[in-house]
């Protein structure tokens, strides 16, 4: 595999780390700025909304420059945002830093997927894209727990300074290793948006918002839930995040494998099981062992939905794979924002730190219902196409 893929994976690792590490240091950030945990949850919501806005906007703007220059610009935004978070004198500045960093997220994965595929032979395109996304997956196993540990021992500001440094490494890697190319040929804004005339694309993204939102309803407030409800020490949160990350890695691999064989059955199974496990987490969160097991299952089932959802979106928007890919990353993060906000509401209402779990169950259950609708519409379309008379030449 080309070394350029390593540069893309490092960038993905840094982006994945900064997105999720805030959950492990949320109590420390809230304490330093003197805000409540639900208010600090806006650091998750703000990041997610930034991805939602930045993914399609910057991807479309990226059609005007070479993909290498676009990737370098995106990593520059990422560095600035994390550096600003590290030195933020007030909560509002911290939130601004999170939003700036988030603007690079969706577009980096959308453009990076195309670059990764172009670096290898046609038969290895999927493997190349998978290798880049491995950086995001590994971030949940290594980067997030390590960042949480650093944040709890040396301070959360050091965590974000280290993440900014990772961005510098990723930027230098892209500059040195990714080959230069001209502007993509035949790519226009109109062509990119044409695929969104298909109602199935919007339905698929709604499934993404609700399905992955179910995961984030629970994990956004995982630190206070595990310390205040399950009885774990603050230091144990790091290892619980490792467990969550391992579940994500396993679920992503299983989801990808079986989505290629039977996409919709895999989606039905993962979303249905996710809704059930999230509902059970309301009760298992009160026991250390059961809480740990359930957390791993949430990670596995949550990321088992990612490959089938991503493939479904790309299948429905084959005319604009780059924008569709970036927009779906935005949809994942819109779900994150929605879930973090709803989770904060039920906590503020006095329903306790386990209340976000049943919110997540409702979101995942709603995504399951939409998946049934999407499958039904697809069967009708396929049936209508098969029944259509064949023109006689």
Automatic annotation (TrEMBL):
<keyword id="KW-1003">Cell membrane</keyword>
<feature type="transmembrane region" description="Helical">
    <location>
        <begin position="103"/>
        <end position="121"/>
    </location>
</feature>
<keyword id="KW-0472">Membrane</keyword>
<feature type="transmembrane region" description="Helical">
    <location>
        <begin position="128"/>
        <end position="150"/>
    </location>
</feature>
<dbReference type="GO" id="GO:0005886">
    <property type="term" value="C:plasma membrane"/>
</dbReference>
<keyword id="KW-1133">Transmembrane helix</keyword>
<feature type="transmembrane region" description="Helical">
    <location>
        <begin position="229"/>
        <end position="250"/>
    </location>
</feature>
<dbReference type="InterPro" id="IPR050189">
    <property type="entry name" value="MFS_Efflux_Transporters"/>
</dbReference>
<feature type="transmembrane region" description="Helical">
    <location>
        <begin position="74"/>
        <end position="97"/>
    </location>
</feature>
<feature type="transmembrane region" description="Helical">
    <location>
        <begin position="199"/>
        <end position="223"/>
    </location>
</feature>
<feature type="transmembrane region" description="Helical">
    <location>
        <begin position="358"/>
        <end position="377"/>
    </location>
</feature>
<dbReference type="GO" id="GO:0022857">
    <property type="term" value="F:transmembrane transporter activity"/>
</dbReference>
<feature type="transmembrane region" description="Helical">
    <location>
        <begin position="330"/>
        <end position="352"/>
    </location>
</feature>
<dbReference type="InterPro" id="IPR011701">
    <property type="entry name" value="MFS"/>
</dbReference>
<feature type="transmembrane region" description="Helical">
    <location>
        <begin position="262"/>
        <end position="283"/>
    </location>
</feature>
<feature type="transmembrane region" description="Helical">
    <location>
        <begin position="289"/>
        <end position="309"/>
    </location>
</feature>
<feature type="transmembrane region" description="Helical">
    <location>
        <begin position="42"/>
        <end position="62"/>
    </location>
</feature>
<dbReference type="InterPro" id="IPR036259">
    <property type="entry name" value="MFS_trans_sf"/>
</dbReference>
<keyword id="KW-0812">Transmembrane</keyword>
<feature type="domain" description="Major facilitator superfamily (MFS) profile">
    <location>
        <begin position="4"/>
        <end position="379"/>
    </location>
</feature>
<feature type="transmembrane region" description="Helical">
    <location>
        <begin position="156"/>
        <end position="178"/>
    </location>
</feature>
<dbReference type="InterPro" id="IPR020846">
    <property type="entry name" value="MFS_dom"/>
</dbReference>
<dbReference type="Pfam" id="PF07690">
    <property type="entry name" value="MFS_1"/>
</dbReference>
<protein>
    <submittedName>
        <fullName>MFS transporter</fullName>
    </submittedName>
</protein>
